[in-house]
Design goal:
alpha/beta; D-Maltodextrin-Binding Protein, domain 2; 9-stranded mixed sheet
C-alpha cells in the first residue's frame, strides 16, 4: 500500500511540473499550458521565445478550447489556461471548491472578423445582418448583393471561447441555424472558407490572411486601430489564467508577464493581435 501511494505521489509531481532541485538527475522546470485555439499562437510564440532564453525550462502548449483549458486548470492539470473569454461563474465555483484561485491575465486584445471567399463581391454587413444569416433568416447571397447561391455558414464548436463571444456580441443568445457547420479551430474555419466560395465564417484577427476576405461590420474595417480604439463592434480581451498570482521571480511569473515587456508586445503584434499596452 505504501509503495502504491509513493508511485501515485510521484506521478502527480511529474504532472504538475514541480521544479527539481539543482544537482538532481533532472533540473528542468515545466510549465504546462492548455486551452484556447485563439490564444494558442501567442502561447506558442511566447513559449518558443522564453525557452530560447531559459534552457532549464520546458513549456508545452495544447489547444483543446477555452472550456477545456478552464477544466485543466481547475483539475490541476496545467499551470496556465488560455481562454478567449472570461471564466464563467460556475468554473470559478468549481475551482474554489478544489482549493484553487483563478487569476486572470489579459495578454492581448482581439477582434472577431467575419470572413468570406475572396471571390465574394460582398464588402460588409451590419451586426444585425450577420445575426440574420446565422439564424437562417437570410440563406442566399443574392439577398446581400452576392451571387444566387445558398450561404454556407461555418461556426466554431460550442466549447470555444470564440463561439461564446460570437453568441454574446452577435447572436444576442439567439440560436444558430441548424444547417450551420461546426469546426474545432480558427484555422479550420479559415480553411473551410478559402475552399468554399459560398461560405461565411468568423475568426480571430490574428488568423486573417490573403486566403480569405475580411468584411466590414457596420461600415467599420476590422484592424488594429479600429479594434484597439473600441470602434469595431465585435472585439474581446484574450486571457491567460493561473491558479493564484505566481510567486514573483519564478519562471511562471516571468512567463505570464511576458506580454508586458517590449519583446512580448512585439510578438503579439507580429502574430496579428493587439498588445494591451496599445489598447
Amino acid at each position: 500500500m505504501k509503495g502504491s501511494k509513493l508511485i501515485a505521489m510521484i506521478s502527480v509531481f511529474a504532472l504538475v511540473g514541480l521544479v527539481v532541485a539543482p544537482g538532481s538527475a533532472v533540473a528542468e522546470e515545466r510549465i504546462i499550458i492548455d486551452g484556447s485555439t485563439t490564444v494558442g499562437p501567442i502561447a506558442k510564440a511566447f513559449a518558443e521565445y522564453y525557452m530560447s532564453k531559459n534552457k532549464d525550462v520546458n513549456i508545452t502548449v495544447s489547444e483543446s478550447g477555452s472550456g477545456n483549458g478552464a477544466k485543466s486548470l481547475i483539475n490541476g492539470m496545467c499551470h496556465v489556461a488560455d481562454m478567449s473569454r472570461f471564466m464563467k461563474d460556475k468554473e470559478f465555483a468549481a475551482a474554489v471548491k478544489k482549493g484553487r484561485t483563478p487569476v486572470a491575465h489579459v495578454v492581448a486584445i482581439d477582434g472577431i472578423v467575419m470572413v468570406v471567399h475572396p471571390s465574394n463581391p460582398v464588402k460588409g454587413f451590419t451586426v444585425a445582418q450577420v445575426r440574420d444569416i446565422y439564424m437562417g433568416r437570410i440563406t442566399n447571397w443574392k439577398d446581400l448583393g452576392g451571387p444566387n447561391v445558398e450561404i454556407v455558414m461555418i461556426s466554431r464548436d460550442t466549447n470555444s471561447g470564440t463561439y461564446e463571444t460570437f453568441e454574446k456580441l452577435v447572436m444576442k443568445k439567439k440560436k444558430i441555424y441548424e444547417k450551420a457547420e461546426y469546426v474545432g479551430s480558427n484555422g479550420a474555419i479559415r480553411q473551410r472558407v478559402q475552399s468554399t466560395p459560398a461560405s461565411i465564417g468568423y475568426i480571430g484577427l490574428g488568423f486573417v490572411d490573403r486566403s480569405v476576405k475580411a468584411l466590414e461590420i457596420d461600415g467599420i474595417v476590422p484592424d488594429m486601430n479600429t479594434i484597439s480604439s473600441g470602434i469595431y463592434p465585435i472585439a474581446r480581451p484574450l486571457f491567460m489564467f493561473t491558479d493564484g498570482y505566481p510567486k514573483l521571480g519564478t519562471h511562471l511569473h516571468r512567463f505570464i508577464t511576458l506580454h508586458l515587456s517590449p519583446r512580448g508586445q512585439e510578438i503579439i503584434e507580429e502574430i496579428g493581435f493587439i498588445p494591451v499596452t496599445r489598447y
